[in-house]
User: What shape does this take?
Amino acid sequence: MWLIPECPFFRECGSPTLIVLTFLLLGLSTAAADTNSLDDAIIVLAERVAAIPDLHGPLRLEFVTGDGLAASPGMTWQESFKKELEARHLDLTEEPSAPPLRVALTATPTQWILVASARSSDHDQVRLVSLPRASIRLPAMPAAPLRIERQLVFESSERILDASSLWNGSEGGMVLLAYRDGQLTALQVDRAGAVKQFTPILIADPQPSRDPHGELSAQGTNVDVLLPAKTCSFGWASAGEVKCRSVKPVWRGATVLTPPCDPAGWKIVSDGRDWTVPEMLQVVPDRSAREGSAAILSELPGPILNVNGEQNPASALVVTRNLHSGNYEVYRITLACGN
Assistant: This one.
């Protein structure tokens, strides 16, 4: 017998709603499917959600994953669903305080079920669309087992925007971009985590904004600091000589890890939309056709603020804010071979 999973998607549903939903899903295991393709199911679900009486935006669209839910066939369908909602003039927002519109993909033995849940007029509203199980083929797991190894390499009460490997051979260490004593500062940190050197980065507004953005690129003793309206450069040999120029920065793309047992590459995925909850770091194959069930997960103690690759192609530095301690932390995550 197929049982409805206990997961955050159903947390807002009261007992009567949960009982009805259970029977609906169980009944779908023998009923005819609503559609025969995922593309059609996305359109039908968007139509059914948009038709919910008295459903007013803006709503926060939330795709739910977790134990008991089906592995997602990539992420393309999520973006398609969002576009279908917007085409039906349903107002969406990323504001954490907005009421959620939760969407999940689950399954019976014979069907996939797309489920959407929202609250309207003080009632939980649930809409379902079913399609044959054979219509979606999830990617196979990788031949070589992989795992995420995580090491805390730095933490501070000062706000950290980014971290970069020094890429300088045996000495190791890294550079941090942080607010130190209210001033945007580049810090040189040795392998043991001790600050060896620092240099202020002078900007027009020394106070951190509500959502500051900055990235580092360090090659040996030379460092580039990318800011929203300018790029600043300096060398550690003459750290006081910081030269800035007005230029629109080109922000780094997704970080791809290449462990020895899978040179095709694995991409680090994070949304970083909600800074009030811990985030699940996902590492997925770097080919859209392989995304989905093969994702490797590691939960961090807070939201992911930045990700930067290292000299080791299987490793990256991840900046997060620990929601328990309030400290900013830098982790070295490595995609290792073997169980």
Residues 1-23, 288-293 have pLDDT under 50 and may be disordered. The two ends are 31 Å apart (CA to CA). The longest strand covers residues 146-156.
